[in-house]
Every structure is written in structure tokens, then in C-alpha cells.
Amino acid sequence: MLRAFVRAVWTICKKDLRVWLRHPSNVAITVVPALALLFVDALSAGAVGRSPVALVTLDPGAKGQQMAQVIRQADLFRVSDATPAQAQALYQNLDVVAILTIPATFTQAVEAHAPAHIEVQINNLNTDFTNDIRRAVPDAITQFYQQQGGKSPIQVTLSEQNLRRQDIQLFQYSAMPLIVLLLVVSGLVSSSLAAAGEWETHTIKELLLSPATSAAIITGKVLTGLVTTFTLGVLVLGVGSLLGWVQPTGVYWLPVVLILALVALFSAGLGVALGALVQRIQSVGSVAIVIALYLFFLTGGTAVLAFDPAWLQTVATFVPLYYGRHALEMAIFYQSSDQFGRDVSVLTGSALLAVGLGILAMRRGLADSR
User: Mean pLDDT for each 10-residue chunk of the chain (370 residues)?
Assistant: First the structure.
């Protein structure tokens, strides 16, 4: 009996996978939403990660050149060296958000211990760019005075103690919730389409007349979503690792794989439940994407959740994907197992609950079709 059950489950799973792969629209529905958001995030990160500025250095002296070098190396700006006329053209065309000018008298003023000015012209088109420049310029000046050592009229010592072992680029940080979104969309779409398709094409009658038990039919549907979603997740992480976006190391690959499997199982269970309830391919695809996007945004998918409104932080704690995202970030970015037990427990319970809902919905649908 066990052999017959496994054979039936595997046959149903293979059939659903072949149907899914034969329809490019199904594959597109699965990957396009997450890839589109990933592209938007890449553009946004490129625009706001470092502010574009034009640097005009009018001082040929040692201090003026040193100040210019500090600005270039401060990792705060995207610098375009320019003449005054070129800088104004860049500024007017919105190619830069500010013009930083080191005046001709800068070296003389520094050596005379007199006020040494740096002229800053900012286009305050929005507070994000404006405040970035207002914070970054004083930081660069502080670095300049620190480099003067004992000769500096202003004694500055910088002591940085990082909370985490490495810096994570904005695009990397944004890519992680999008990977979770890709997993959820894949699980919801592939499982819901596989389940709904049986009713829309009336093949559910053939399944009921076959030797396969109801348990085998339901398990095969869940397994379809689990296999496609988990495989896609591993593939995306592998590509991301090669590109340097996400780089889990050593034993931390194990918790990453476990979290991928739990998120895949959670989304597959929901997908089966959704497909059995809706029973229409076109409708279920749209509903699955909407649900996935809402879950994505409710877990702070577009920002750092800790800085989001308090109500959203509270809501996120009731969404299982919040715990999947946290566990993946800890393992991939920071090589940490912080609250890993909590994350796994919540995801395991949520996955089992989602599979339970899928089983109930499928049993109801099968009973109505008999």
C-alpha cells in the first residue's frame, strides 16, 4: 500500500510539473512580479545609495587637494570632477544633486587657522537627497581634520565600532525580501494552478476514478508546489551567490535551506487551498499574486521594518514571512543564528497549518465532485 501511495503521489506531481512547464504564461506569472520589483529596487538603490555631486576644486594647494581626495574617498558621494561651468550644467540638468566647491583660498585659510569654507549648492528637490548631503559634507570635513593629526587646529578622533561584522549594500538588503516574495508567488501560483486546473479541465473526475486515494491526490498537489518553489529558491540563491548579492557561508547554508523549504511548504499549502476553493485558473492566478504582494508589503518588504510605523510592525509579527525573512537575513548577511529557534518554530507551525487548510479545501472539493 505504501508503494502504491508513493507511486500515485509521484505520478500526480510529475504530471503537474509537466503541465506547468508546458505553459510559459504560468512560469511568467511565477517569476515576473518578483523580478520586476527587483529591477525597480536596483534602480532605486543606484539612485539613493550615494548622492551624485559635482566637485569643483579651485585650490591647487596641498590642503585643497587633500580635501578633494577626502571627498572622493569618503564613500559618501558619487563624485564628478568638474569646472564651475561644467558643474552648473550638470546641476541644471539634474545629473547631480549638489555642487561642492573648494575655494582657491582653502589651503591658505587652513594653514592660517582661519575659517576655511567649502561652498555647497544643493538642489532641494526632496528631503532624502538634501539631508544626505547635509550630513555627508560635515562627515567628510571631519575626516579631513582627523588626517591633519597634531597639526590640526581642531583635534578630531574617530572611533567606529560596528554592530555587525560587515556592511550590507542597500540593493543586497532589498533583494532578500524579494527572494521571499519569489518563493511565495511560486508556491501559491504553481500549487493553486495545479489544483484549480483539475476542476476547470474536469480531470478531477479522472483522478477520482483512478486507483489514487484522496490522500495521494492532495499530497501530490502539495508536493508540486514544494518542489517547484524550493528548486526555484535554491536556483535564485545560487545565482545571487555567484553575483555577490547573497553569500551564505559554511554551516549557515543549512539554516538557509531549511527556511527555504519551510517557506515553500507554507506557500504550497496555501496555494492548494486557494486552488481548491476558487477552481478557476485565470481567477486563481490573479488572487495568488495579490495575496503574495500583500504578505510581502505587510512584512515591510520595501524598507527596514524596525523604522516603519508601529502598526505595521505589530501586523508583521502575525505574518509568517516576517520570520522567514529575519532568519534568512541573519544567516546570509550576518552569519548569525539570532532567534533562529523562534523563526523555525513559527514557520513550521504556519507551514503545517497552511497544509492543513489545503487538505481541508481539497477534501471538500473532492467530496463535491464525486
Answer: 80 80 72 72 64 92 92 86 95 92 92 88 84 86 81 71 76 78 83 82 76 80 85 81 75 89 91 87 83 82 76 87 89 87 95 90 77
Partners of 52 in beta bridges: 78
Residues 225 and 197 in one domain: yes
Distance in angstroms (rounded) separating the CA atoms of residues 16 and 228: 10
- Residues 54, 188, single domain; the answer is no
Alpha helices in 23-158 (DSSP H): 24-48, 62-73, 84-92, 106-111, 127-147
- From 275, 258, 262, select the one nearest 188 (Cα to Cα): 275
Q: Based on the domain organization, do 256 and 362 belong to the same domain?
A: yes
Whether residues 260 and 141 share a domain: the answer is no
Whether residue 298 sits in one domain with residue 176? yes
Q: What is the CATH number of the domain that holds 81?
A: 3.40.1710.10
Q: From CA 111, how far away is CA 12, in angstroms rounded?
A: 81
Contact 26, 190 (CB under 8 A): yes
φ, ψ at 227 (rounded to 5°): -65, -50
Do 68 and 102 contact (CB within 8 A), yes or no?
Answer: yes
Instruction: Quote the DSSP letter at residue 150.
Output: G
Which cell goes with 169? 549594500
Considering the domain architecture, whether residues 88 and 208 belong to the same structural domain is answered as no
The SS3 assignment for 306 reads: helix
Question: Does 156 reside within a domain?
Answer: no
Question: Do 313 and 57 touch, CB atoms closer than 8 A?
Answer: no
Range of the domain at 89: 50-151
Residue matched to cell numbers 510529475: 14
Strand, helix or coil for residue 77: strand
Contact criterion met (CB below 8 Å) for 196 and 279: yes
Q: Do 276 and 360 belong together in one domain? A: yes
